[in-house]
Amino acid sequence: MSEIYFIRHGQATYDGKNYDHLSELGREQARVLGDYLSCRGVRFNAAYSGTLTRQRHTAELVLSGLGQDPAMLQLAPEGNEYNSMAIMDSLLPHLPGPGPRNLAEMRALASDRPAFRQAYERGMLHWLTAPVGQAGPETWRGFQERVQGFVRRVMEEQGRGRRVAVFSSGGPISAVMRMALSLEDEVALRLTWQIRNSSVSVFKYDQHRLTLHSFNSVSHLETCDRPGLITLV
Questions:
Q1: What is the model's pLDDT at position 11?
Q2: CA angle 178–218–18, rounded 5-degree value
Q3: Beta-bridge partners for 164
Q4: For residue range 148-197, what is the model confidence (pLDDT) as tens digits?
Q5: Which of 63, 115, 137, 196 is most buried, taking the most CB atoms under 10 A from its CB?
Q6: Residues 144 and 172: beta-carbon distance below 8 Å
Q7: Which pLDDT value is given to residue 15?
Q8: Closest to 142 (Cα-Cα) out of 93, 83, 102, 66
Q9: pLDDT at 110
Q10: Contact at 8 Å (CB) between 68 and 44?
Q11: Residue 64, Cβ neighbours under 10 Å: how many?
């Protein structure tokens, strides 16, 4: 059987305008992972990444740490994260009960972390069943189909006896978990919020099936004895 290593990007940060780049800690997480995989003798026959900057930069740092040419990276927009803020912007006016009705009201809750998280989860759980007119850029079902189609394409392109890296985000990795384990929708969505930065989830596959081997591992960060390296942002 072949293996696909799904690797979440390192910690991202805000610069006041754009979330889509790695923080210094995120860059360190990626470098540590590259060194760790190199020490374990891991080499990839192929590597894919979403087109988001935080995904690509993580891939480049990890591959460089392995002594592999980052030019081997194949970009695939199907591996991109769902746009949660665009989804929330579309959903908020339609949610029943009390709570923020637009992104401005949502962002006003940022200083109250429990309230922000409650509002965010409420909106994203509604996304699971939201119709096309409310769901924003893509429905939950469309997102699942996008990611699953990408995974099947990688499996077909790479064939047998291969070790493949896919650098992506929490949402797509949870979609692969749903695909491999037939998870319920809410369970899969909630997994998104548990997947750690630079974590590694390994799946084995053949022409018939995709099987989970390990999930959300940050052994590379734990061996550093620096708890601050383990993040979820």
A1: 96
A2: 75
A3: 4, 46
A4: 999 999 999 998 999 999 999 999 999 999 999 999 999 999 999 999 99
A5: 63
A6: no
A7: 55
A8: 83
A9: 82
A10: yes
A11: 15
Going by C-alpha positions, the residue among 183, 84, 185, 96 that lies closest to residue 135 is: 84
- Pick out the chain residues at pLDDT < 70: 14-18
Q: Exposed (0-12), middle (13-18) or buried (19+): which is 14, by Cβ within 10 Å?
A: exposed
DSSP for the chain, written as a single string: -EEEEEEEPPPB---SS---SB-HHHHHHHHHHHHHHHHTT---SEEEE-SSHHHHHHHHHHHHHTT--GGGEEE-GGGSPP-HHHHHHHHGGG--SSS--SHHHHHTTTTSHHHHHHHHHHHHHHHTT--TTTSTTS-HHHHHHHHHHHHHHHHHHH-TT-EEEEEE-HHHHHHHHHHHHT--HHHHHHHHTTPPTT-EEEEEE-SS-EEEEEEEE-HHHHTTT-GGG----
pLDDT in the model for residue 17: 56
Residue with tokens 């480049």: 60
Find out whether 128 and 137 touch, Cβ atoms under 8 Å. Answer: no
